[in-house]
UniProtKB/TrEMBL annotation:
InterPro entries xrefs: Pro_racemase_fam
Gene3D superfamilies associated with the record: Diaminopimelate Epimerase, Chain A, domain 1 (3.10.310.10)
Protein name as catalogued: Proline racemase
Organism: Cytobacillus horneckiae
Family, per entry: Belongs to the proline racemase family.
Molecular-function annotations in GO: 4-hydroxyproline epimerase activity
One Pfam family cited in the UniProt record for this chain: Pro_racemase
Amino acid sequence: MKLNKIYSTIDIHVAGEAFRIIHDLSLPRTNSLYQLSEQFPIKFEKEISLLLKEPRGYAGLSGCAVLPPYHQQADAAALFFNHEGEMTVSYSGIVAVITCLLETGKLEVRSSQQYTIETIAGIIQVTAILEEDEVIEVWMAMDDVHVIPNQQADYSIAEGNSYRLALFDSNITIELEKLPQLSNLGKSKATLLDDRVDGIVLIDSKSSHIKTMTFNKDGQILRSPGFETTAACFANFKKESASEQLFINESIFGSRLQMHHSDKGSRLKSRGFITSMQTFVLDPTDPLAKGFLIK
């Protein structure tokens, strides 16, 4: 075996959504994180394929490159990417990043519990609560979501700062035993929408505790309840008269995200878990060096 390149990664899941975090990429120093993000998908196309695609990765895996911040107020910078290329920001990815930095000792624990991560969408402030060197809670403020009812169809459009989701009532109970029927339902709903929509959400129940399934633009089922999905569903169902509200979104396999709303705004609570620390190698004679995907 001839080793051309070696990459060290840390895998973390947030409510079931998996992220592969890379610390040791030799990234060029640019004038801004945004400028680096423009170069990243092109200059690191091989690395993205190697680390996310099979046989080392899989279709549902997203990646993140963590690097020193450009902005003085930030603790670290993060570039998120998936199989489609660069992602603007991933809220669940932010949870993964802060969990990784604190639990591996790359970021000093603060008594204030306040930390900041720089992204190309701006600086994201998070509250991370530790107990015996383990991150047990991560809180993050969520921007307001605007919901547009569609009077001529059976769905609403939820618009956030960087995403657009179509919300459908599911006429099938969201449970694992009905996954094939739900997958077909999601695909059928996708044919009704245009490219401006980033995902489709099937919703089971209209109470303060719902179950959802989110289909990404490429047809993949999101493994977690989804931060964006939770914020969108809360905006759709929230009670205007209640000043304090607790909203729970549950995935098809039982993972949950909690949204707390008060006069001070809306915050989402989650937690990340390190699942592995790995070293990947690139053998130039490997015929599958570019990887492949089976969806």
